[in-house]
Design a protein that fits this description.
Layout: H1 4-13, E1 23-29, H2 33-46, E2 51-54, H3 70-78, E3 82-85, H4 98-114, E4 122-124, H5 135-140, E5 145-147, E6 178-179, H6 186-193, E7 202-206, H7 221-233, E8 237-239, H8 259-267
Helix pairs in contact: 2-7
The structure holds zinc ion (ZN).
Zinc ion (ZN) binds next to loops.
Length: about 280
């Protein structure tokens, strides 16, 4: 028998709807030219959403063979894709660099506004390095969603992490479920996205498709085409990071952002071998 208080508790817990199965968040890092030339037409063909995280780091200012122009980035926005912030200099976030983060975010937000793109509400931690003292800086900059890597739950060398659990994972520490690597095959992609069930969402991280300057995270064009065709054929719903808003109760964020991470580490300690990053 369920008493009235029980029902009220249930209603509170269901303030945000539970994510249906087969939801995939698609993200691209580092503003590779191939995001415009290769990914864009494929995603438009299938009606997929995606987030493109922009940095002016690496050789972005001068190397327009490997990195998009702001005009190309604006095209992606006009097509309905999300433009996210990845800091001006691809700044790795540690306790020491947190004081520089606000300016780093503001430069990219200003460039977006200059190019007719709204200031980003999504962020990807550069190099997947995160530090909890940066969360308030992100919030103050208007960032509502942030994607990290699969660490610390899963070593970097594995190329992925846990599925995203809305409600349990803090929205500024959303894990990468599948992190595409040069040696990936369709089987690796399947291993990641099969976890998009039981209210969990699979988050994919790509770099260039292909990637000129970062061969260790390159995805060949043919593989990328194969992955997207398979997701389409299997009926996955492919969305941008900002679209997870509907599964989050903003008034009920986890009090301890590290709690779910520590819970997973305790339940499933990773091997002691060091990260190969
Ligand atoms: Zn990056």
């Amino acid at each position: 028998m369920i008493v009235a208080g029980g029902w009220l508790g249930l209603v509170a817990a269901l303030a945000a709807p539970i994510a249906p199965a087969k939801i995939v968040v698609l993200t691209f890092d580092d503003a590779s030219t191939s995001h415009h030339t290769v990914a864009r037409p494929i995603l438009k063909r299938y009606g997929f959403g995606a987030t493109f995280f922009i940095t002016e780091g690496f050789t972005f200012p001068t190397n327009k063979h490997d990195y998009m122009t702001w005009r190309q980035i604006a095209d992606l926005h006009r097509d309905g894709f999300e433009i996210g912030n990845h800091t001006r200099d691809h700044l790795g976030i540690t306790e020491k660099t947190v004081p520089r983060l606000a300016t780093q975010l503001e430069v990219i937000a200003a460039r977006c506004r200059e190019n007719g793109i709204p200031a980003p509400v999504s962020f990807a931690w550069p190099g997947n390095k995160f530090h909890v003292t940066a969360l308030t800086v992100l919030q103050q900059a208007g960032i509502r969603f942030a994607r990290r890597g699969g660490e610390p739950e899963v070593p970097y060398s594995v190329g992925g992490g846990p599925p995203y659990e809305p409600g349990a994972d803090h929205p500024l520490l959303i894990p990468t479920t599948g992190d595409a690597r040069p040696n990936w095959t369709l089987e690796d992609l399947k291993r990641a996205v099969v976890q998009a069930r039981d209210g969990h969402i699979a988050v994919l991280q790509f770099h260039g498709v292909p990637d000129g300057e970062h061969p260790w995270v390159n995805t060949p064009r043919e593989r990328f085409e194969e992955y997207m065709a398979w997701l389409h054929q299997e009926g996955f719903t492919v969305i941008a990071l900002r679209d997870v808003a509907r599964y989050i109760d903003d008034k009920n964020l986890p009090a301890d952002p590290m709690a779910v991470i520590n819970r997973r580490l305790k339940a499933n300690p990773p091997p002691v071998s060091p990260s190969t990053r």
